[in-house]
Specification:
about 500 residues, five-stranded parallel sheet, four-stranded antiparallel sheet, disordered C terminus
């Protein structure tokens, strides 16, 4: 099956230029029994592509119809049977209409009116049709819808739009050489060398039921879902992806893996999701970026770790934010041979009321060339003596207090480091294996592989930078953050030793 699909895709890509994604999506939608929407202007080959793909399935019946506001149910589902009406039964003659076809193509799908909407919704979702009292199973493999614009936002439009899991924005050909080929070189009759049969399609669907998932793929899927839910919460233009839609997505991934001959869904399948998770074309790039990043990282967001680092201000955890009011005010007097005279305004005196103030003052010129005392205890202390007095008289240990207040910061840095190491384990060797899987995946095009490689290289560079930032955060000591700059850093031991020398 894989080789046959590969030949088919290559043949279609050679004829329908600049339609690589649409071709892959059309075949995968048929295999997975899902519907596909082409969104774009007329004259871009949407109908012709759908007709030919149907022609590549042996014995498949193709139904095409252009919908308008006045399209009737009879036009899509078949006229009422006069013979049945004679027996008071409401039945339709469905032969040659949508309920008896294998692939349907409904142009201007969102022009459907209320009289045909209910029948369409049932067929699109359940592949069944209510023909009078009888519920008929249809042979539909897929229904392709086409529209020049998105539906109006209302209950009916949303319900119909939600039935199309695969979504593609089809644009006019952009490269002049490709347009030349379409206009002057392509023959009128496109005949690929191989075909699929309905039985082969049904067999793949059966095989897909036993396909499982690797643990990391399930983690990545949940991470993608969380990310999209957050965006839907922040931006109302992002629609909520229903549980039903996620279940269908899971089935698509299993079918894609089955066509590769795999018994489990690997990460290389997840790029398919970029065509299944957007509601507005302007969301496509953002969805693609989310999928690529979380697939590369195993479901861990590099941006989330970087945001945590940005918010990790050491001063938020610093001792200076958890000040301890001293039982008595401490006065530092600069020892400048002026008999301890002077005032705070003269710069010769510092009046301190918190332990943080004392420690910060100890880093300044007051540390080693001054004497200090408590306001209610006029015994003079050196800086070292003051630290001992605080411990002996009040049970205040600066070293311990600072360390205890800094534990939260160290814990947060450690958490970020652990997350970073989990992310980093997807190293070059791991990526090489992933890249080989992508290149072997018939549902991924070369452009996807190239973009993933470029994105990976960019992230590796950013990882190196983030590693340096985390290392820098790990080196910050409790004392360093007592003031904002930390350029005059000294350890408590260094300060005490200098004070003892004096």
């Amino acid at each position: 099956m894989k080789e046959k699909l590969k030949l088919l895709i290559e043949a279609y890509q050679g004829y329908f230029v600049e339609r690589e994604d649409e071709i892959r999506g059309a075949f995968l939608a048929i295999l997975a029994n899902e519907n596909l929407l082409f969104l774009g202007p007329p004259g871009t080959g949407k109908t012709y592509l759908a007709q030919n793909i149907c022609g590549s399935i042996s014995g498949a019946e193709f139904f095409y119809y252009l919908l308008t506001h006045v399209t009737t149910s009879e036009e899509l589902f078949g006229p009422l049977s006069p013979k049945a009406l004679e027996g008071d039964e409401f039945r339709r003659k469905m032969e040659g209409c949508l309920p008896t076809s294998h692939i349907g193509y409904l142009d201007e799908i969102f022009q459907a009116n209320g009289s045909v909407l209910n029948g369409l919704l049932t067929i699109l979702n359940d592949r069944t049709f209510h023909n009078g009292p009888e519920v008929v199973d249809t042979p539909l493999l897929s229904v392709f819808g086409a529209s020049n614009e998105l539906p109006e936002t209302d209950e009916n439009g949303d319900a119909l739009y939600d039935r199309f899991l695969f979504r593609y924005e089809v644009k006019p050909i952009t490269v002049e050489e490709n347009l030349w080929k379409v206009i002057f070189e392509n023959s009128e009759n496109f005949l690929p060398s191989v075909n699929l049969s309905v039985s082969e399609i049904l067999e793949i669907r059966e095989q897909a039921k036993s396909v499982g998932f690797y643990d990391d793929v399930m983690d990545i899927l949940m991470a993608i879902r969380r990310e999209l839910r957050e965006k839907a919460g922040d931006d109302r233009t992002w629609a909520y992806i229903s549980d039903r839609r996620w279940k269908k997505i899971v089935n698509v991934l299993k079918v894609a893996a089955a066509t590769q001959g795999h018994d489990k869904v690997s990460r290389s399948m997840l790029l398919i999701l970029e065509h299944l998770l957007w509601d507005h074309p302007e969301q496509k790039l953002a969805v693609r970026r989310i999928i690529i990043e979380l697939t590369l990282s195993g479901g861990r967001s590099f941006d989330a770790i970087e945001d945590e680092m940005t918010r990790l201000d050491p001063e938020n955890y610093a001792f200076s934010k958890k000040t301890i009011i001293l039982p008595q005010t401490v006065i530092f007097r600069k020892n400048d041979n002026s008999s301890g005279t002077g005032s705070a305004s003269s710069g010769n005196v510092k009046i301190l009321s918190t332990l943080t103030d004392v420690i910060v003052a100890g880093r300044s010129r007051y540390c080693n060339d001054s004497i200090c005392n408590f306001t209610m205890n006029y015994e003079n202390y050196t800086y070292e003596g003051l630290m001992e007095a605080l411990l002996e008289e009040y049970g205040i240990c600066p070293e311990s207090q600072i360390r205890d207040s800094f534990i939260d910061y160290e814990y947060m840095v450690g958490e970020i480091r652990d997350e970073f190491l989990d992310l980093k384990r997807y190293d070059a060797d791991y990526f090489s294996h992933y890249k080989r899987d992508l290149e072997d995946n018939i549902w991924v095009n070369a452009r996807d592989v190239d973009e993933v490689v470029i994105y990976h290289q960019k992230k590796m560079s950013e990882m190196d930078r983030l590693d340096r930032e985390i290392s820098k955060a790990e080196q910050i000591s409790p004392e360093y953050v007592l003031t904002k700059d930390g350029r005059n850093y000294q350890s408590l031991d260094q300060r005490n030793n200098r004070a003892a020398d004096h």
